Amino acid sequence: MITCGFIGLGLIGGSIARALKQNRNDIYIIACDPDPATLQLARSEGIADVAIPAPGAELGECDYIFLCAPVSRNDENLRHILSLRREGCILTDVGSVKAPIARLAEELGLTDCFIGGHPMAGSERVGFANSKAVLLENAYYIIAPAPAVPAGAVDAFRELVQSTGAIPLQIDSASHDYITAAVSHLPHIVAAALVQLVRDHDDAGGTMKSIAAGGFKDITRIASSSPVMWQQICLTNTVNISGLLQDYIDALSAVKGELDGREAAQLYDFFDHARAYRDSFIDAGSGPIKRAYFLRVDIPDEAGSLAAVATLLALNGINIKNIGITHNREAEEGVLRIEFYEEDAIGKAVRLLSGRGYVTHL
Asked: Is the pTM of this model over 0.85?
C-alpha cells in the first residue's frame, strides 16, 4: 500500500485524493482538515481512511504528504511536519507559485525529498464538496523537484501523478513562476482591469454591462475567480508579474501612440501578428476574437469517450465547430470543450448530454 497524507482537503486536495482512490487500489489516505464537515464527508465517501483535524503522528506513516492548504499556510505546515515525516517520505505542495516554497524547502534541508507541484486545474467552486476525480483528467500537472531528490523518487511521483489522469510536466520552479505569470497570472489582472474599466465608465442604467456579451465576456470570464487566491498569487509571484505587467503597459502605450497617430500600417501589423500567433495555439480559431458558443463536459479518460460524445451530438443534428481536450484547466470545469456554430445548439446539447448522464458546464 502507498500511504498519502493530505494537509488541507479542499477542491484540489480533495480531487487528487478522489482520483487516487478511484484509479488505484493500493492507496491509503490520511486526511487533515480543520473542518469537521469535510472530514465527515471524506470518511463517508470512502476517500479518507483516517481523518484528523490537524497534522499529527499519523503522518509518520506516509509515503507522500501533499500540502494543500492555502499558500499562506503551507510554509507553516511544511515546518510543522518536519518532526512527523518518516525517512523517505516525499513532500509536495499544490500551490500556484513554486519558487518561495522551494526556497523554504532548501532552508529546511529538504532538497532530497521535496517536489513542488501545481495541478493546472480548478474551478470557481471551492471546498471538498465540489472536488471530483475527473477535475485532473488531461490537465497538466507541473512537478518541480528540489535538486537532490533522487531520480527514482521523481519517477515514482510522476507515475503517481499520472495515475490521477493528469499529464505530468517537469519544469524548474523559477521557470514555472515566470511562465505562469505570463499565461495565467497577468491575464487575470488584465481581465479584472477590463471589468473595472467598464464598471467605471458605464452609465447609470448599466448599458455597457447589459450589452457586454461575446468577446468581452469570453476574455474576462477569469475575472470571476477567487479574489483571495489571486491576492496571494500576486503577493508571492510579485517580481515576475510586475515585470511582465510593465512590458504589457509599454506595449499598450506603443499601441496608443500608433492609434493617436493614426498609423494604419503599424496598427494592421499589431493585430495581424497577434492573430497569427494566437491561431498557432492548438485550440485557436481563425479571425478576430468573437463570441464563442461552447460548453464543457466531464468525460471519463477512456478510449472512445470523446468519439461517443461527438457521435451522439452528430446523430441528433447538432453541428460541432470545434472539439478538444482542455489541458490547462485552471479555473475551468469539464475536460472536454465543445464549440458550436450557433447559440441554440448549446441548449440542445446540454439537454441531450444531461439526459445521457453527462455532467455539463456552461
From this structure: no
